[in-house]
Specification:
Blueprint: E1 6-8, H1 12-27, H2 42-51, H3 58-78, E2 82-86, H4 94-102, E3 109-114, H5 117-130, E4 135-136, E5 138-140, H6 143-150, E6 157-161, H7 171-184, E7 190-196, H8 201-207, H9 214-230, E8 239-246, E9 251-258, E10 262-266, E11 271-275, E12 280-287, H10 291-300, E13 304-310, E14 316-322
Parallel strand pairs: 1-5, 2-3, 2-6, 3-4, 3-5, 6-7
Antiparallel strand pairs: 7-14, 8-9, 9-12, 10-11, 13-14
Helix pairs in contact: 2-9, 3-4, 6-7
Amino acid sequence: MINNSFLILDDHYQELKDGGQDIIKGLTTVSKYLPSRFFYDDRGSQLFEKICELPEYYPTRTETWILSQYAEEIAKTTGSCSLVELGSGSSTKTRILLDAYQENPHHCNYIPIDISDSILKNSVLQLQKEYPDFEICGLLGTYDQALVYLTSRTVPQMVFFLGSSMGNFNQGESDIFFNKVSCTLKPGDYFLLGIDLQKSPDILESAYNDSQGVTADFNLNILSHLNWRFQGNFDLSLFKHRAIYNQIDTQIEMYLDCQASHSVNLDILDLQVSFESGETIFTEISRKFNVETIQKQLITHNLQPIKVWTDPQQWFALVLSQA
């Protein structure tokens, strides 16, 4: 514990070992890929916050509108409970929920969870000033580490996963994630999920190819992260960001396209990787959902949907389920 405000779940050395094996696997396959969690070093987290403010990036403002309209209804539905956020970032939208729960006469607390040390600490310290009546304790670690930790808690809680982060999981990964959430929650606990809905490809592709190039910087930053974490020598100028919408799988796909043949060393991993001009690194998917389909998937994991809120354009949805 640090100043009774933070709990460090992340085992740096184990993460270095496990993460290194994931990098080796991803860069030595025929179709190279990188795990999307490596986007989020401190700079990556800061860039994602900037993405959320871009005019083309509709998910944040749309979800914010939904929360502003229905946060009080969410709070009344769940009643007093511990609020637990997976991937909290700067907790900007979360303030709408905290304001709604602050109106509840019973005591609540807030547990933000993130893998970025600096953004988590800064947001916790700021929130403690803004919400002195809340107990706020940040957990530094991965979703998996956090869900294991939360299993031992006995107080009523609502775990929530906002933004479009759910879309970063493929079908198999989302089943594993829902199963872990289900195993974490006690009967009567709640799970609030934000999902980005299917819509025009033009709208989707614009959101991930913004005119200011912030998403491109975010995508390329994954290579910078590997450079400092694994003593690498990726030259970012030799790669170019590309995001496309796959209409068959209803998902945005992000790539880094190699512009010239070259080799890269990652010294800590004792790894050398050769790239050919035109070769790609697959870095992320962002799936777009159908409400009825996601409700059926939740039910298969003993998470019973009880309410869905969306915007007038039906671009985004919040789904509240109960264990």
